[in-house]
Each structure stands twice: as C-alpha cells, then as structure tokens.
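Q: I have 147 residues here and want to know how they pack in 3D. Can you give me a structure?
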Amino acid sequence: MASILVVNGPNLDRLGQREPSHYGHSTLAEIESRLRQLAEDLGHQLDSFQSNAEHALIERIHRAADAQIDGLILNPAAFTHSSIALRDAVLASALPMVEVHLSNPFARESFRQVSYFSDIAIGSISGLGALGYECALRALDQRFRSS
C-alpha cells in the first residue's frame, strides 16, 4: 500500500462556483471523495490538502517528505506560473509528482502556458477536468506496481 498526498493550490476551494466553464461543476470535496474511493479500491491511502497560502503548501509538502509519503499529486493552480518556492519544495521532497490542471492552460491566456512544475513532474495532465486527478492517481499506482 502506498501513501499519496494530493495538494491543491489557491482558489481551488472555490470549485463548483468559480468559472465552471473552465473548471467544471464539481466541488473540491466531491473530487477528493471520488479520488479517496479510487485510492482505496487500488489499495492505497490518500490524504489531501488545499490552501490559498503559498507557505502552507510548502510546509505541507515538507511534512509529506519527512513522513516518507510515496507520491504527490499537485495542482498548484495559479502558483503554476509564479512559484519558484513551491517548485523548490517539490524538488527538495524528492517525491514522484504528477501535475494536474482542471483546465487546459494551453487553450487560455499566454501567461498560463508557463509551468514551473511540468519539467519536474513524472507526468502532467491538463484539460480533463476532475478526471485528471483520477488519471494522476492511476499513473502513480502503475509506477508503484512496476517498481
């Protein structure tokens, strides 16, 4: 059994209300519930964390590394395009990480097309809505089973 942490960045606590044309109608709680069930079905433990504060996200990733969590699913949200500090925390954790975005940043404004995380992720999933989280979990599951 692997232990997986899902970290969600700023404004994702507003899912279901915020720009549903980009982010869908599911709330973060609904996404996490489905993901937790899938993790259980796959035989893994899943914990999730969301914050609008960069330092809180960094501290949670540090704690995950110290607790020897096995993998990370990260939706850095707007910090995707701006947070070197969060990137450094992911690098320092040495956790295998899958980057997830609900919308497709490449179909949006040019500033959203830059990610400080894609090159350090084992994979990046965007534009699939809430399904992207499930794909990320399955990718980590496959990685754990093959190692």
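Q: Anything worth noting?
A: The helical segments are 20-23, 28-42, 54-66, 84-93, 131-146. The longest strand covers residues 3-8.
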